[in-house]
Amino acid sequence: MTEQGDSAPTAPEGVDTEKPSAARIYDWYLGGTQNWAVDREFGRRMERQWPYVKPGARHNREFMNRAVRSALGAGIRQFIDLGSGVPTAGNVHEVIAAELPDDEPAKVVYVDYEPVAVAHATVILEEEGATDWAGIIQADMRSPKTVLRAPRTRELIDFTQPVCLMLVAVLHFAGPDDDPAGIVRTYRDALAPGSRLVISHMSEGDAEPGEALDGLRWLVEQYRNTSNPMWLRDRDEIVELFGDWTLLEPGVVHLPDWRPDRRLNAVEAEARPFAWCGVAEKPA
Ligand SMILES: C[S@@+](CC[C@H](N)C(=O)[O-])C[C@H]1O[C@@H](n2cnc3c(N)ncnc32)[C@H](O)[C@@H]1O
Questions:
Q1: What is the pLDDT of residues 93-125, one digit of tens each?
Q2: Residue from 34, 80, 93, 112 to probe ligand 1 pocket by mutation (most atoms less than 8 Å from CB)
Q3: Long-range contacts of 37-46 (CB under 8 A, 24+ apart)
Q4: Does residue 113 line the site of ligand 1, with CB under 6 A?
Q5: How far is the CA of 81 from the centre of ligand 1 (A)?
Q6: Which among 24, 45, 75, 231 counts the fewest CB atoms within 10 Å?
């Protein structure tokens, strides 16, 4: 499946290559290879109108990596990654493999409803010999009970021990009718004390009125016409998703401001306002 040449890769079973999909567009933003012409065409249109899609996707991926490393540093060894996407470089199990010695086990459950994400993750986990500690289930994260009760989830996750639950760049695909606060509450309630909740979410943030904000609003309108409509939320709504869990320092901030480990270039700095993120811990 080659991205650069606009060739038509063979689609895994169940993959609709006629309509753009959020998972594959995001893969293209990150420079991945699991996308089709329809996704690239959509992605390029977004980029022309709103040049922050790629720097924003990188901010998001880097935040996710820092949050996983932080959870590992706190001793957490179980991860559930909701809306995990196409496993482009830097996915959760890769961060874990890079951080932990081979003989120190951790467990990962990936969850995505997009067939190409599931097909590709399955192949990667098999090729890497990681299937005894990492798995993927095809499910809609808006049905927490289905996710939490799935046989693969039960095989891999011990719910009496802390879990790092990740909702990274996925909740903005849940609309008001989906009751995102209720969804997240159900997940929070299922987890043991010491668990962590990692959230990132697209937003108008505190951006000044102007071209960049207009471009983002236009982009959201375009996603509304795909199979993955998008909803922006403000900071207060995102803070509420953490419920009574304890927000870890530095709280709910823009992606590159959560425990940064590098300097930003000018475009990366301009992309800063358009998402919020945070990590919270379940009190004892
Ligand atoms: C923007 S990508 C983010 C990927 C990854 N979490 C990251 O941040 O690098 C969003 C992913 O969420 C998935 N997704 C959207 N809504 C979902 C739902 N209701 N249930 C499961 N997956 C969903 C999409 O298929 C896509 O793969």
A1: 999 999 998 878 899 999 999 988 899 899 889
A2: 112
A3: 37/6, 37/8, 40/3, 40/6, 42/222, 42/226, 45/222, 46/219, 46/222
A4: yes
A5: 9
A6: 75
